[in-house]
């Protein structure tokens, strides 16, 4: 996968270079340099954060909550013209910032108004610092749940990946609204997770799993999810006996809720099942960090 300034893999995984690029971008936004303590390296992790237009333009939130959505308005109506003028005014303000970001955080997908495809790292704190910059620059905003995909490098069977996703969701990585809406993914098994392979990953990792049902609500919150993902990956690989205990407890909790362990139907096909699970967030007895 080709990138503009990070044209070689060593750029993404060179912590000194990457922190330097981060501070160059911070300067563009009028922010003071930040000192990132990269910490100990772990399994490669990466995130994609999606931003919808109502999240990009908070002052236009009433349009998103209106009984009639803008896309359903007549294009020659006064209401649509007012919406279009407000949208264009906001976009003229925001787009220059987004374009300045692309050398550091590429925009690859088009699933939302903007998708921030952070380059992967073995150091969680670098990713957290990049997310923090988006909040400080007024691009991301507190009080919003940004749909997030988290990719963890490593070979995982479906049961292990399912247990990891469950723990990430239960420990602050998701919300009831995200789980029951299922926008962008269809089922907890094959939809909530996606296997990734070497040709899809930046770096030397041969495989990974993308967890698709998560959110970002703050730098600290997504940082906790990234640290947890690394901790789970390390445990599964280096402490298999302890991992099986943790995995067993996760599945036992699901059984206690009378929820299946295999792929689930879509939320629209069985909303009661998903409402039960969404209501259980934070109740898991499993704790890692």
* SSE topology string: HHEHHHEHEHHEEHHH
Nearest-angstrom radius of gyration?
20 Å
The secondary-structure class comes to alpha+beta
Q: Strand order, biggest sheet?
A: 2-1-3-5-4
Describe the protein's architecture and organization.
The protein is α+β, with helices and mostly antiparallel strands and 289 residues long. Helices cover 46% and strands 12% of the residues. It is built from 11 helices and 5 strands. The protein has helices at 9-13, 15-28, 53-56, 61-65, 78-101, 124-136, 158-173, 176-181, 219-238, 240-256, 271-279, and strands at 45-51, 114-117, 146-153, 193-197, 207-216. Strands 2-1-3-5-4 form a 5-stranded antiparallel beta sheet. The chain is globular and about 65 Å long. The chain starts with 8 loop residues before the first helix and ends in a 10-residue tail after the last helix.
Condensed summary:
Helices cover 46% and strands 12% of the residues.
Which key phrases capture this entry?
289 residues; alpha+beta; five-stranded antiparallel sheet; 11 helices; 5 strands; globular; disordered N terminus
SSE topology:
Layout: H1 9-13, H2 15-28, E1 45-51, H3 53-56, H4 61-65, H5 78-101, E2 114-117, H6 124-136, E3 146-153, H7 158-173, H8 176-181, E4 193-197, E5 207-216, H9 219-238, H10 240-256, H11 271-279
Antiparallel strand pairs: 1-2, 1-3, 3-5, 4-5
């Amino acid at each position: 996968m080709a990138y503009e300034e990070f044209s070689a893999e060593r750029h993404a995984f060179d912590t000194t270079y990457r922190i330097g690029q981060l501070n160059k971008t911070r300067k563009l936004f009028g922010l003071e340099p930040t000192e990132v303590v990269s910490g100990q390296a772990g399994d490669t992790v990466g995130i994609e954060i999606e931003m919808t237009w109502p999240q990009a333009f908070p002052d236009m939130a009433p349009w998103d909550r209106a009984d009639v959505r803008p896309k359903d308005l007549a294009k020659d109506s006064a209401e649509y013209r007012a919406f279009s003028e407000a949208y264009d005014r906001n976009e003229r303000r925001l787009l220059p910032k987004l374009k300045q970001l692309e050398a550091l955080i590429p925009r690859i997908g088009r699933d939302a108004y903007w998708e921030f495809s952070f380059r992967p790292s073995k150091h969680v704190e670098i990713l957290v610092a990049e997310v923090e910059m988006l909040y400080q620059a007024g691009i991301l905003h507190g009080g919003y749940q940004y749909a997030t995909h988290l990719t963890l490098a490593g070979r995982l069977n479906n049961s292990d990946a399912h247990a990891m996703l469950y723990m990430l969701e239960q420990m602050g990585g998701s919300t009831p609204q995200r789980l029951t809406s299922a926008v962008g993914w269809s089922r907890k098994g094959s939809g909530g997770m996606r296997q990734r392979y070497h040709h899809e990953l930046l770096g030397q990792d041969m495989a990974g799993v993308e967890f698709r049902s998560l959110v970002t609500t703050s730098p600290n919150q997504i940082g906790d999810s990234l640290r947890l993902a690394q901790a789970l990956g390390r445990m599964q690989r280096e402490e298999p006996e302890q991992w099986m205990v943790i995995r067993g407890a996760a599945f036992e909790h699901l059984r206690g809720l009378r929820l299946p362990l295999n792929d689930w139907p879509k939320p629209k096909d069985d909303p009661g099942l998903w409402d039960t699970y969404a209501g259980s967030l934070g109740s898991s007895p499993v704790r890692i960090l």
